[in-house]
């Protein structure tokens, strides 16, 4: 359902997140009391899901919000999201995977597309049940992957890019915190640096450096949500400092890392000015 833009945006300025779990080629973020994120874009496809109560979402260029319980956002498309204080799951799928490529083919006509699939509600309920009952990360990932596979008719993990680029992506995903200069990445792909740079963009749609940042911000969020300090998480993920992580996270997710809270008792910060700058 499409709604007119309200006269004033909701007062919630942050998002609370309960848990983050990752797999090669994707991740799942689930939390209560989810609030509003500013306009942002990221490299992964975003599948946004709720159970009993809807959220709001729209493309950054659109004037109307959609109120829905299931939507998909295409990669690198600016958008806004408001969880309306409800429990929401975000499933991220990298477009370099077979599942990601199929999702892009099916939904690329829209920045944000609503999902009305009849089989999705039960799978969403199963995912949120794992979160509510404090299931393992493996169970959370499995439930999220079932949603990806249901929507794409492809397994969630396998890649769909040139094998030479796939080797580099595997290296980044396995060691996103490790230094990997472009020349070294090109050597892994058995290409010259200039040829590698061109082929990487052609296969992924973004630059090698941009992909490294995407992988590292995901790692930093996962480590911060696991209980470490955000300063330590930034350093462990290869960021120059916590401010660099904060800028990157704001650009990709519309929030600062310190606006994320782990566990069942989510802490909601009151203003976007609080947190890393």
Automatic annotation (TrEMBL):
Cytoplasm as a keyword? no
The record's annotation in PROSITE patterns points to:
HTH_ARAC_FAMILY_2
Question: Where does the HTH araC/xylS-type domain start and stop, copy by copy?
Answer: 166-263
Q: What is this protein called?
A: Helix-turn-helix domain-containing protein
Alphabetized Gene3D superfamilies for the sequence = Homeodomain-like
Task: Output the Pfam families linked to this UniProt entry.
Answer: HTH_18
Q: Which SMART domains match?
A: HTH_ARAC (SM00342)
Keyword Protein biosynthesis attributed? no
What highest taxon heads this organism's lineage? Bacteria
Xref: PANTHER family: HTH-TYPE TRANSCRIPTIONAL ACTIVATOR RHAS-RELATED (PTHR46796), TRANSCRIPTIONAL REGULATORY PROTEIN (PTHR46796:SF2)
Record key words, sorted: DNA-binding, Transcription, Transcription regulation
